[in-house]
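Quick one: structure tokens for this chain, please?
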Amino acid sequence: MSNNRYGGVDSYAAFFIAYKARTLIRMPMFSRDDLEDLEQDMLLYYLLSMPDFDPQKGDKRSFIKTVVNRKALMLVRDAEREKRWTGAQNFSLSFQIGDEDDGNTLADMITGESSIWGDVFFAQSQIVAEQNMDIDKILSEMPDDLRQTYNLLTEYSVSEAAELLGIPRTTMSSRLKKLKKYIEGKMG
């Protein structure tokens, strides 16, 4: 049960925010411990959005639902982004490796034979180049609708791609199945 208080807030907004927060904690990326934080995030977003409400353009309840649902989607998207984060960080080539006494830098470590400038990397880059040529060949022979599906799904999820095209998610999933079958046929 949440300890948040909604004094001075529209009662429907308070109800819908609490409802949406309880819905979100059922998702795998959130826990019961996140309930109050989710409520507070959605409440703050609602309060900051209220000056944009124009009764001439629509119903207040519809506005509240839209604002709260939009913030809920943002919270889910941000939580999924955190899960996808690989932990990769940028470092300067002058970054010290190991003990400070030996003076080795990152640049010293990557100039060896197995580094990105050595022969091992060249062999790997050759394989990658050949794979890219194979992909380009398959794409050039691919029907337009499958190529469009491929291009969208390299950048977006199935749901996002469906939304961009204005089609149901199930239709995009069917296109993905056709694309997989086509590629498997070309590789087989």
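Residues 142 and 182 are 8 Å apart (CA to CA).
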